Amino acid sequence: MNQDLHNDIMQVGQENREVRTDVPIFGRLTLPLEKTGEIPILYKPDVDIEKISFKKFSFEETVTLLHLKLENMNDFDLGLNALSSEIWLFGVSTGGAKLT
Questions:
Q1: What is the residue-level pLDDT of the chain in tens, covering all 100 positions?
Q2: Which of 31, 36, 59, 60 is deepest in the core (most CB within 10 A)?
Q3: CB-based contacts of 62, cutoff 8 Å, min separation 6
Q4: What is the DSSP string of 27-88?
Q5: H or E stretch covering 18
Q6: What is d(CA 49, CA 70) in angstroms, rounded to the nearest whole number?
Q7: Beta bridge partners of 11
Q8: Measured distance CA(14)–CA(28) in Å, rounded
Q9: What is the SS3 assignment for 93?
Q10: How wide is the angle at C-alpha 27 spanned by C-alphas 21 and 15, nearest 5°?
Q11: What InterPro entries does this protein's entry cite (predicted)?
Q12: Pairing relationship of beta strands 92-99 and 27-34 according to DSSP bridges
């Protein structure tokens, strides 16, 4: 267990605490932590490619439009403000995108 997290949990006499952690895909999250109740289990969002459209296809360049479906399986909003992706074909990175 992370030592900082352990110290936060073991604090005596504190009614409300917060745990800050970096979670893949979600980024930096702050979770409320109290002495009673349950700590939520975080789930990665489910990402599916719904449609692929080739806008330009040649030996020099390929322009592709991907329609992604993102499903949040948590009880809270993702608060998604940035997204980065990388496309791999047969073990070779063929492109990527960043939305900010």
A1: 456 655 655 554 455 567 777 878 778 888 776 666 677 778 888 888 899 898 888 888 888 888 888 888 888 887 778 888 888 889 998 888 888 7
A2: 31
A3: 54, 56
A4: EEEEEEEESSS-PPPP-PPEEEEEEEEEEEE-SS-EEEEEEEEEE--SSS------EEEEEE
A5: strand 16-23
A6: 9
A7: none
A8: 23
A9: strand
A10: 35
A11: Lea14-like
A12: unpaired
Q: What are phi and psi of 66, to 5 degrees?
A: -105, 135
The pTM is what? 0.44
d(CA 73, CA 45): 6
Q: How many residues are given for the chain?
A: 100
